[in-house]
Amino acid sequence: MKPLRLLFAGTPDFAVPCLAALLDAGHEVIGVYTQPDRPAGRGRKLQMSPVKTLALDRGLAVHQPESLKRDPEAVERLRALGADLMVVVAYGLLLPVSVLEAPRLGCVNVHASLLPRWRGAAPIQRAILAGDTETGVCIMQMEAGLDTGPVYHRVATPIDPRETGGTLHDRLAEIGARALVEALPGIAEGSPAPEPQDDALATYAHKLSKDEATIDWSAPADAIERQVRAFDPWPVAQTILDGATLRIWSAEAESESDAEGSAAPGTVVGADRTGIRVATGAGRLRITRLQPAGKKPMSAADYLNARHLDGARFG
């Protein structure tokens, strides 16, 4: 396959393996688009995106327009680069049709779900929250609709029952990089044609918010466990005890034994070195790792060294 002249558009860690894989495969990346540097950390100093850091390390030209929808000159500069194809991975900016049509072969996106399931901003976390047993990566031809384009290539992978949003993110980033390189020859040669999505099967992965992190103890234990796993490392599931916030980093759902009787959701029904067992709307949740406000995450056993929780109530 003749190396392609590529533009790459991406911003966070998820996009880094794809850019690295394109370079390692010998493709000519003639420019990298990433979001402008943003203030971050306690000092609020400007910080480069992970993609920009890699691009500069590899000597690539970097472009950081604030917008491509409202900046026709930026679009014209992009078109003048004469790319064969633009690869978009979690870029974070909307691309107008004028950009989608600028490269000779258009734009393709690496999306972290098995489309049309979980179109949108947070497909990894939504898949865990919903209890999906399988997810994957799609290499999709971009069009004006949100994640609605036909799919060139898809790779499925099971979701482990203990998988977190963080571990699945990292795994799909690597799968996506391999899938992208595998798909490029077919995209360049126009064969096979991309497969249209069935819109009737589409679901939408809304962007995550901190408001979703608060645990509703009336929910079933298995749903709360999925919430804990999906929101690790962000926004992290949390609850309230004695007016203070506790972040919950790890927990397991357990069935309720007849001997335990009924307890109001949120009530601590047991606490020992194996964890803190809490009544829920259906079953018990055993918290094994948590983080009091202002402290580092710790095991439930370490937390219990400093206080007793029998009969306490969360929420």
UniProtKB/TrEMBL annotation:
Q: What is its EC number?
A: 2.1.2.9
The organism's superkingdom is given as Bacteria
> What reaction does this enzyme carry out catalytically?
L-methionyl-tRNA(fMet) + (6R)-10-formyltetrahydrofolate = N-formyl-L-methionyl-tRNA(fMet) + (6S)-5,6,7,8-tetrahydrofolate + H(+)
Q: Which UniProt keywords apply?
A: Protein biosynthesis, Transferase
| Sequence ranges assigned to domain Formyl transferase C-terminal in this UniProt record | 207-306
Give the similarity note.
Belongs to the Fmt family.
Looking up NCBIfam families in the UniProt record yields: fmt
The record's function comment reads: Attaches a formyl group to the free amino group of methionyl-tRNA(fMet). The formyl group appears to play a dual role in the initiator identity of N-formylmethionyl-tRNA by promoting its recognition by IF2 and preventing the misappropriation of this tRNA by the elongation apparatus.
**What PANTHER family does the record tag this protein with?**
METHIONYL-TRNA FORMYLTRANSFERASE (PTHR11138), METHIONYL-TRNA FORMYLTRANSFERASE, MITOCHONDRIAL (PTHR11138:SF5)
This one is known as Methionyl-tRNA formyltransferase
Q: Which organism is it from?
A: Allochromatium tepidum
